[in-house]
Fold D-3-phosphoglycerate dehydrogenase.
Amino acid sequence: MAKTSLDKSKIKILLLEGVHQSAVDNLLNAGYTNIEHLPTSLDEATLIEKISDVHFIGIRSRTQLNERVFEAAEKLVAVGCFCIGTNQVDLDAALVRGIPVFNAPFSNTRSVAELVLAEAIMLLRGIPEKSHRAHQGGWLKSAKNSHEARGKTLGIIGYGSIGSQLSVLSESLGFDVIYYDVVTKLAMGNARQVASLEELLARADVVSLHVPDLASTRWMIGEAEIALMKPDSILINASRGSVVVIEALAEALEAGRLAGAAVDVFPVEPKGNEEEFVSPLRGLANVILTPHIGGSTLEAQENIGIEVSEKLVTYSDNGTTVSSVNFPEVALPAHPGKHRLLHIHDNVPGVLSEINRVLSENDINILGQYLQTNERIGYVVIDVDKDYGTRALDALSQVSHTKRVRVLYSESSFQG
Ligand SMILES: NC(=O)C1=CN([C@@H]2O[C@H](COP(=O)(O)OP(=O)(O)OC[C@H]3O[C@@H](n4cnc5c(N)ncnc54)[C@H](O)[C@@H]3O)[C@@H](O)[C@H]2O)C=CC1
Ligand SMILES: O=C(O)CCC(=O)C(=O)O
């Protein structure tokens, strides 16, 4: 159970994978000066060594935060994923240790949608192959297999933030949009939801995937699904590499079953820009391969840097967990003149009454109390009228099923 006492300047923040400078600036402005900002991810052994004294970590899609890493992260208070996907984090391992995980659910949505739309047009015109030939001195001037987007059917799988944004953009260009989602979703514009994946695959000229990495989406597009797609149709995957069976896609492209593909995410991705990219899709005609840059625009990265660092600062200063992806969400008011106790515990009956009993026995006066739980943990926030020193921290630590205790002083310094 974590219980230490720290000043803001001692709170160690590790930012990996070239998280945008906007995050560093934001953290510095908020008084967090102990920041290590690295351009790459770290291999597991190095990360395990480094994370032992880290309070906040910021990552993107490449860093794997698994059980072994969390086990070593004795002081970790929160995780910031400077991206949308959180499949690289063992959310349960974080939860059971009382560590909230935050992400940026919308900041790169537009960037992905724009890229996919551009790719759909390029592929419909056979541009990758024509461009490649021209670079080699060839001249492939021909209208063969070259189509306008207007009147073609775009099938979107996963109609969430990115899928629905893509829907709006592509309709404005004249695409007819259909979509498949496991949830009934309000259609944008004239788009229509279809009843099954099979129906979407059979009707679309361009299929684009925008589902998260879940057990139910893993390898959801394989040989059987590709066989259902229209001859000469196009597949785009900017979701996760685990969604498409890449060998089946390569075979279909080689056999001329599909007219083209754009793939941004792969089952195995290089760990850094120096490592070789290996894929059965390399060298195939009319295939756009991009190095997981769907969300990599300067605009998106700057916004993500601000958004996620703000969430970390707010949690650190105030205890608010709104929009955490794994944690009970508590929206807390500012606490000027009050000290705030944070208590994270297993969600079992009786903990709240024990907390109140312990506080009362220690003569600690409660000004306000907030509680939120999920199936696994409870998160109680208690505002008290004065600095009780380590008395409050010690008292709360003795409550059974306690995972973590923190004190936030009214001037926002931190003990965690
Ligand atoms: N290539 C890149 O750089 C980026 C990739 N991504 C990926 O895109 C994914 C989607 O992002 P958002 O649109 O923001 O997520 P979202 O959560 O807003 O939308 C996902 C949609 O997929 C639906 N869905 C879930 N399981 C499904 C299934 N089995 N079949 C059909 N629909 C299903 C959900 O109901 C939801 O509507 C992210 O989870 C991330 O993995 C996100 C940003 C950048
Ligand atoms: O920018 C990144 O590293 C990953 C982008 C991504 O895939 C996401 O936001 O889920």
Remarks:
- The CA atoms of residues 143 and 166 lie 27 Å apart.
- The radius of gyration is 25 Å.
- DSSP finds 13 helices and 17 strands in the chain.
- Residues 298-318 form the longest helix (21 residues).
